[in-house]
Structures are given as structure tokens and as C-alpha cells.
Specification:
Largest sheet: none
Structural class: mainly alpha
Mean pLDDT: 89
Order of helices and strands: HHHH
Number of strands: 0
Low-confidence stretches: none
Shape: elongated
Distance between the termini: 35 Å
Helix content: over 70%
Length: 71
């Protein structure tokens, strides 16, 4: 929707390019982080940052049961 309109508008192309680059960079950083850091360390850091326990337990359960869902 809006991204396409920003891309088609000549003045909005720089905004579109900036948002596109930033979003892809964020995704790449998160992929590298999850490949190089043990999941328990990520949970520990999120706990120190005071992320709500419900979110942490949801993340832990998702990570634990992901192989079951992929079968």
C-alpha cells in the first residue's frame, strides 16, 4: 500500500529506499544474532532488560516446540 505509493512518487523514493534498507538491515542483524548467540543467553539479556515474563515464556515455548511444529 503506502510503500508502493512512496516508491511510485518521485519525491518518496528516498523515503522508500531508506525504509527498505533499514528494515532489511534489522532483519539481517537479528538473523546473525540468533545464529551466533545461544537462545538461553538471549532470554537472560531480555530478562535483565525487564521484558515482561509472559513474553519471555512465550518465546521460550515457541523455541522449544518449533521442531514439533515443523514435523
Amino acid at each position: 500500500g503506502l510503500g508502493l505509493l512512496a516508491f511510485l512518487n518521485p519525491a518518496g523514493r528516498s523515503v522508500f529506499a531508506s525504509a527498505f534498507i533499514k528494515s532489511n538491515l534489522c532483519v539481517m542483524v537479528m538473523v546473525v544474532l540468533t545464529w551466533t548467540t545461544p537462545f538461553q543467553d538471549i532470554i537472560a539479556v531480555l530478562r535483565r532488560w525487564r521484558v515482561p515474563p509472559v513474553m519471555l515464556s512465550t518465546l521460550a515455548l515457541m523455541q522449544r516446540y518449533l521442531p514439533v511444529l515443523l514435523e
